[in-house]
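ok so dumb question maybe but i'm new to this and my supervisor (M.) told me to 'just get the structure for Protein mesh' and walked off. so i did the thing. is this what she meant?? sequence i used:
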Amino acid sequence: MIYEKCFVKFCFFAFLFFSGSRAVYEDSLTSRQKKLEEIRAYEGTYDPMTSRIEPSSKESYTITADRLREIRQYLMYPYYDYDNDGHRGDLEMNINTQNTQVNKQLTFLLPFFGFGLNYTWVSINGYLGFSDAPFNWRTYPLFFPVAEWPDSPDPSFIGPFYSKCNIGQLRPGEDENQKTPGVYWRLERDLPSRDDRLAVEIRERLKWDIREGIVGAAIYQPKHAIIVTWKNVTFAGGSVNTDAKYVTNTFQLVVTTDEIRTFAMFNYDYMTWTSHTEAGGSSDEGQGGVPAFVGFNAGNGTRAYEYTPYSQSLYIRDLAVAGYADDKPGRHIFRIDEYVLAGSCRREETLKQYPLVFSPDHGNMLGGTLVNVTGPCFETSYRITCQFDTVTTEGEVLDKNTAVCLMPQLFVSGYVDLGISVNGGPFYWSGRFLVETPLTTAEGVWFTDDSVYTKSPESIDINWLAGNLTQTHGATVSISLWGYRERSILPEIVYIDMLYDGVENWNREKEPFTISTADFENRENTQFLDLEMGFIMINLTEPEPAFKLKKSTAVWSHPIPIAWYFQYQWTEIYGDNWEINMCDKWIESDRNQRNFAYEIPRCPCLLVQAISDRGRFLPDFSCDKDGNTKCYYHYGASHCVRSALPNKDGAGQQCCYDRNGYLMMTSDQMWGGHPQRAHNLGKSPYDEANKVPSLSHWLHDTVAFYSCCKWQSEQSPGCTVYRFERRASQDCVGYQPPSAATTFGDPHMYTFDDLQYTFNGLGEFVLVRTDSIRHVLDVQGRFERIPENYMGNSKGSMLTAVAARDNVSSIVEIRKRPHDAIWRYHLDVINASSTLQATFLTKAKSSSCSPLEPGLKSKKIWVTLESGFIYPFHLPYNDTRGLFGNWTFDPTDDLVLPDGTPGPSDVTNLEVIHNEFGMKWVLDDKEDPYKAEAEYVNMQNGIVAGIVLAVIIPLLLALLCFVAYCRERVKKQRQEESDFSTYKPSAYSTGVAPTVKKVAPVTVSQPMPMSTPVDIEEENNQMKDETDYTSNHNHQEMPNHNHISRSSSSASSTTVDNSSETTFGVHSNEPEVTYYTGEPVNDKPVHFQNIHWGVEDTRTPSPSSSMSPHEVKRSQTPSSSQESAV
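this is what came out, is it supposed to look like this??
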C-alpha cells in the first residue's frame, strides 16, 4: 500500500514537470536570440578578444604585427558568456554555492610539480584543482603541504586566490553589457595545427607574453591553453543586509603547456576584498582577518609554493598593481612543470635571503654567457652588481622584472652562488649556478672535420649557433684566438690574436666559416711562442645595444692544439721538425715534476670489471661505448674509463679496452690508456696550476700526445719516452675488485660478504653505518610497499630512496620518482637542498660534497638505482654495520645489531630475521634528525565525473525522494519488531541491580602490549571451559580470575598488586571499587556467552564508586582477556 501511494505521487509531479518544459524552452530560445541581437548592436565591429559572444568562424587567418601589438595590450584573455546559438558559452552554470566545483577531463599531458596530469577540477573558490577538495577548511592561516596528511586531506591545486567565494552581482546602474558574474572555463587544444582566427591570436599572444614575461622561455611554443576566469566573485559569509554581494573580485588563471614545460599566468583585473568571514573578514566589505592563499600545492604531503609577500598578508591588496610581467600591472607569471619559478619581481621586506630566478642556470667556465635574472623589482636608474662565486661583474636593467649579467671567467667547476646587489646593497637575492668545464660543456664553436688536430692544415671550417650570440639579423662577429699556460702557481688564459673581424653572423650552424692558415704566416707573437693549446672565441663585434653592456656575449670551442697558427713562427726558430723540439721540452718539464703514477688506482683487468667498478671508475666521454664511439685518442678501443675522483694531488687514471674486452697497454701501441697528471674534473682549490678543470689536463697530458706521437711516428724517440716512461699504461697487477652490497626485488639482501637473506621492511632503515675515529658514514634507505599491479596488491616492499652523508660532505639523497612522475625524469638527486633530475649516467660536482680519501683498509661501495645514477662511498674494513652487514670476508658475522652484539644466525627463518635483526635498524626522527620526507607520493587518480543536464535534475530529485521515503517506512516497521535485539537495554529500567566488578589496583609503567594471536587463542579455549555464570541470574558468586596478572607476565613492564583478588559476579564479595559494566540485564533469561557489545557505556558511575586515574583508564579500556571472559 505504501509503494502504491508513493508511485502515484511521483507520476503526478513528473507529468506537471514535462507539461511545462516545452513552453519554458520556447520562451528561453526567443529571449536568447533577442539578447544576442542586443550584444551585437552594442559591440559593433566583432573582436574575439573583447566580445561577449564566442566566435564561430573557422576560416583561415593570418595575424599581422599591428594586430599582435594591439591584442597584447589587454590584460585579460578572452572568455565568453554567450555563443552564437544563445547558450551561455564558457560560463559554468553548474558552479554555485552548493556545487562548488566541476570535473574537467584533459586530452593532453599537463606537467605540474613533476606529475603528468590529464584531469582537473575548476572551483568557485579561486583555484584549479588536481585532487578532491578538502573536506573542511582548516584553521587560518593555511599551511601547505598539510603536515597531518594522510590523516587530513592535502589538496593539489593552482590557486590565484584560494578563498571561500560566492557569485556576486553587478551594482545597480553599472554597465548592463558587462559579462555575467560567475566562473568561466575555456580550453584551447592543439594550437600549432589550427589556423582559425581565435586559435591563431591566442597562440601568438600567449607565445610572446610567455617569452617576454619570464626568463628561460625564449623558444617556447604553446600547444594547449586553459583559461579560467572568476568574474565578480564575492566573499562567503557576507551579510544580506549590506552591499556585500556587490563587493567583488575579478581575476583569471591562464595555464599553457607544450606537454614538457608548463606556465601559469595570474591576471588580476580588480580586487576589492581580501578575506571571507570564516577567516576573520568583515561581513560587509570582506576586509581584515587572514587574506586568501595565493600559490601552488603539489598535494599529498609533498611540496608547496606560497607566493610571498602577497599570500595571506595585507600585501595581497597589491596583486592588481604589482607583478609587471610583460610590463602590465596585475600580471604574474610562473613556470610550474617541475618546480615553481616566479617570473615577476617581488618586494620582500621581512627576510634576508630571497630566491633568485635566472636563465640559463649553467655556463662555460671560460665566461661570456649572458644570464637573465628576476628577483627584486628594478628601475632603469638602478645600479646592478652580479657576483659569480667570488667574482663580481656589472649588470644592466632591462625592465621592471629583468636584469642581465655577463658571466666572467672563473677557475672553478660545479655549483657556485650567483647573487645580485642593487645600488651597492647586500647580496640578498641569490641562487645556485652550475659552472661547467671547457671539456664537459656543450661546444659553442665546433669543427666540421679533424683538420684542426693535424700538424699543418691548410684550412679549418668552423660552425657556431648564431642565436647564442644575438637574435638580431645582420649582426657581425669577431673571431679571436686564446691560449692557456701555467708558468707559475697562478694559471693564465691569455689573448693571442684577432683572427677575423666583421664576419656575418647568420646561419652559421649550416654554413661554416673557413679559416685559412696562410693568413697567419706573417704574424709575430714572440711572447706567446710557448703556448701549445688554446681555444677559438667568437663574440659580437659590437655589444647588443638592448643589453647596454660594455662587453659582448661569447661562445668558445673545446681546447684544441694551436700549432696551425704558430707553425710558421716555430719553423723559423726550430726548423721543419719543430714538433721534436716541442716534445723534448715537454719531456724535460715533466721529468722535473713530482712522480704521481704510484698514487692512483690500478686499472681493472677486463672491460666487464671496469664497467662494474662504478664507484671508482666512470666512462671517459672521449671514448664511450654508450656515447662517443669515435675514440680519436685511442684507436681500436671499444671503451675507456677514468678514475671517478682525483687523488689528493689532482691526478687520475685512464684505462682503455679493446673490442675483446682486454686492457690496452701503451707498451703494445700508442693508443692505450695512460695515467694523467691532472684529472679532467680538476681539484679544489681550482685556481692553482695543475688543478684547473680540463685545462690543466689538456696542458700536462694531452698536448704532448700530439707533439710526441700523433705528429711523429709511433716508434720515434719522443713517442717511445711518452709511451714507456712518462705516460706508460699501468697493468692490473694489484687490482682488487670491489665488494658490493645490493638489494633488489621485494627485497632480497646481499651483504658485502655475499650473505643472502630476505627482509620485507616498511620505513627507513640503516643500510650501512660506520662511526670510527677516521670514518663517519651513514647510508640509509627508504622501503615502501610495491605498487599495485595487474595481479592486485602486493605485500612486498621495495627500495625507493637512498640518502648518504659522511664526515665531510652534505647530505646526498637519490629518490626514485613514482610512476606518474617519470614521464620525463626517472630520479631526483638532491644535494644540499639542490635537486637535479637524472635520466642517465651523469656526474654533478659540488664543493660541499667531497668523498673521503681512501685509506689502507678501505673500500668503496656504490648505490645504483633504476636510472643508473651512481654515488661512491668509502668503507673501512671490519667497521660496517646495518642491513648490508659487517664487511670482514666472513659471512657468519655479517648480522650485527646496533649495540654491537651478534644477530641471529639462521637467515632462513624470515620471522626471526625480520623481528630480531631487520627491525632493529629502523630509524625514527630522534635517531635520524636529517631524515628527508618523501618528496613524491602517488597522486590519487582523477575521478571522471559526468555532467548532469539541468533539465533532468528535478526528475532525479523526485525519484530520490520517492525511494528514500519508502525505505524509511519499511525500516521503521522492522525496527519496531526487533527493538530488543537492536538497542542496548538499560540496567535502570529493570528490576535487577546492575552488575558490578571489582578492579585491582594497577600501576602502569608503559602501555599494555597488545594480545598476540597465541594469547587470543588461549583465551578462546579458556572461554569454552568456563561456566556460564550469568545465564540463570541466581546471584551466586563467580570464580576468581586474575587476568591482569596474566598480562603482566609478558614482556611488558606493567606491575599488578596481587594482594587483592579480582572477582566477577552479580554481587561482589569485596565491593571496594565498583563501576557499571554496561552489561544488559533483564527479567527474562538471556544467554550472554557469545554477545559482545560494540557500544561503549557512557553512564556516570555511582557516587559510591571511587577510582584512581589509572583505574578509570583501565576500566574504560579493558584488556583483551577481560573482554574475552565476558
